[in-house]
Fold:
Amino acid sequence: MKPINVGLIGAGTVGGGTWTVLKRNAEEITRRAGRPIQITVVADRNVELAKQLTGGACKVTDDAFAVVNDPDVEIVVELIGGYGVAKDVVMQAIANGKHVVTANKALLAVHGTEIFTAAQQKGVMVAFEAAVAGGIPIIKALREGLSANRIEWAAGIINGTTNFILSEMRDKGLSFDTVLKEAQRLGYAEADPTFDIEGVDAAHKATLIAAIAFGIPVQFDKAYVEGITQLEASDIKYAEQLGYRIKLLGIAKRRTAGVELRVHPTLIPAKRLLANVEGAMNAVVVKGDAVGTTLYYGKGAGAEPTASAVIADLVDVTRLATADPEHRVPHLAFQPDAMSNLPILPMSEVETGYYLRLRVEDKPGVLADVTRILADQQISIDALLQREPEEGEGETDIIILTHVCKESAADAAIAKIESLPVQKGKVKRIRLEELQ
Structure:
């Protein structure tokens, strides 16, 4: 059987893993795909690195466009990341009638609508399993395995860097800044970790999950994004005392009026499986009306875990390359002419529980004032923790967990609490999800 020819753009960590796994498991992969999958050309700015990786077994170039314009290449694998050259490369590959496999969540979250439309018009596939949660096959599960279900919500730990930081803060009681430095030393965090710690990376992935779960266009610009930089060790400790753990979650939730799409630190009951995902691991929980709750857990990054997803896409594309484009699995799970216009809800309309930490003067009547403000906004209290002040200390912490309410009501209550003369500084607010 004639091999299918692949052009690999990017010979870094994932590119190297893809070459290695494809070579090591060539026989098994051929048996699955029905024909050999071979990389015939590799492009990387570091030509020496690419030559070292391939050992002279294929062409090497420093020009990505030489790959997409190569008439012998049938599938282009884009592993360079970012929005710039990567977008031009992908669009040119599609224009040339080539299938694309990518791990580029940022590109698809921002420009996915344009890319998928172009691919649809050209009758080619854009596969992106590796773009979300590394080696965990969450895209395939949502797009195919759960296609009988009306997905109600999905919530995931989809950034390993932030999960490592939060795990270390909880285990060792260290500050965010201290653990970030350690994460950088160990290679879990980049020299510039902004995309990870500010929640942007997780929001790119959550945007793709929401699109596939609910059949809506990718709308990264509508996502609410909040990172972990303002979390304090004391909040992690208080949450633990109340039976919760704090994780950075990407949440996509279907509501009657629209879709909640948000990334932020979240309290989760400690007994939930998701709360016990530690270190740099990823996990996604999906709730479908027929299947109930399902959990997908594994390594969300790294050379071979991500390569596992890239090669799974290569196998899929190889199997379907000769199929009628009308009968392939749609890019975003739903037929392009059947996409929903369900809007992304503004945060003021989001409904969730809240953890509120107040720093107040230790005086009689303070708690009564606070509970009256909450009651005025129809916010009921689920649990309350008041720390005994140290001897001679005139201030104390009050921790309140609320039942589910609208964010707009929580905003109004927090503003009134912060205006109380006894309240010192800002109220610390962390959202809470029971994930029932």
Observations:
- The radius of gyration is 24 Å.
